[in-house]
Design goal:
This protein has helices spanning about 15-25, 45-50, 65-75, 90-95, 100-120, 155-170, 205-210, 240-255, 275-285, 310-315, 325-340, and strands at about 5-10, 30-35, 55-60, 80-85, 125-130, 175-180, 180-185, 220, 235, 235-240, 260-265, 275, 290-295. The protein has about 350 residues and is α/β, with parallel strands linked by helices. Bound molecules: uridine-diphosphate-N-acetylglucosamine.
Length: about 350
Amino acid sequence: MSLSKKILVTGGAGYIGAHTVVELFASGYEPVILDDLSRSDRTLLNGIQEITHRDVSFFEGDCCDKQFLSEVFKSAGPFACILHFAAYKSVGESVEKPLEYYRNNIGSLVTLLEVMQDNNVRDLIFSSSCTVYGQPDHVPVNESAPFKRAESPYGATKQVCERILEDAYSTGFRIVSLRYFNPIGAHPSTLLGEIPIGAPNNLVPYITQTAAGIREKLTVFGGDYDTHDGTCIRDFIHVVDVATAHVKAIEYLKQRSEESLYEVFNLGTGIGVSVMQLIKKFIRVTGINLPYTVGARRPGDIEKVFADPAKVNKALHWKVKYSIADSLLHAWQWEKKIRDLKN
Ligand code: UD1
């Protein structure tokens, strides 16, 4: 890795990217954000600035545009490492627009790898997902579990991207893929959080919007799963914990001397929490009434998935700091704040 402190953060105006930019500043790095703002806007860039009191270096453009990307590398580099968050992530939308998902999520990764190669940048942290496992045979799931057939085009793009990285790393890349479980919550300052486009697909933004009266009620998708309370089980992890793992991953690569390497890590807490437990915890922690009903299963949902985080805990010297209660409280505080920020 070069001695430069500059880190290129693609998708740095998005939910996980923006939280990571804050942690990069806190650790003495100089993040440079690249984002096309197609699924984000300047709200989180302002939040980063308010938290860090630093000027954010920002380039607006598409990661699939090789010429644009090359210009960013020339004018803002040299980069020590690239954090590649830029991707589409809505499971439902990917079913409706599969080609857009394949073009964007795979095209941006291939373009980025080519430009990295042209500029002699080797180190990359890739945003993968636990969706690559499908429904694992055993939980907690560890990194050696086989990929099952992806339930959605979105999931398939993450599997294909990981395959591309596996094939390409030996040509001179040093790559870490982080398989996120379910990132939730918001920055404790309430200056950063998730901004869903339209009605949220994900559980926690739907909970907070319902609690805020924006949605009439929450529907729990399926109460007849083979779990202790009949609802699905996930591994919910605070977004700031996800962010700090990226800083640890950069440091991990720095300490490794290999010319090329590829490592995959689960990024989860190791604790499986059911949808119903999460709802009850939200009500308890916030004291807010949350109208909900139990409805039909959502097609494509996995019954039960949570991480075995032993590998990431050991190799990256990382562990989670925030509890589920913290995550839900921060998500709620953000929900109350977000409308002021957007107006
Ligand atoms: C999905 C993807 C994950 C991706 C994430 C980001 C899969 C298996 N997982 O996570 O890879 O990174 O989206 O978008 O494709 N639920 C309700 N009511 C709601 C919303 C959700 O009951 O209104 C339930 C779901 O059925 C599920 C759980 O809450 O059991 C979590 O859902 P969600 O937040 O959408 O995340 P995943 O589907 O786990």
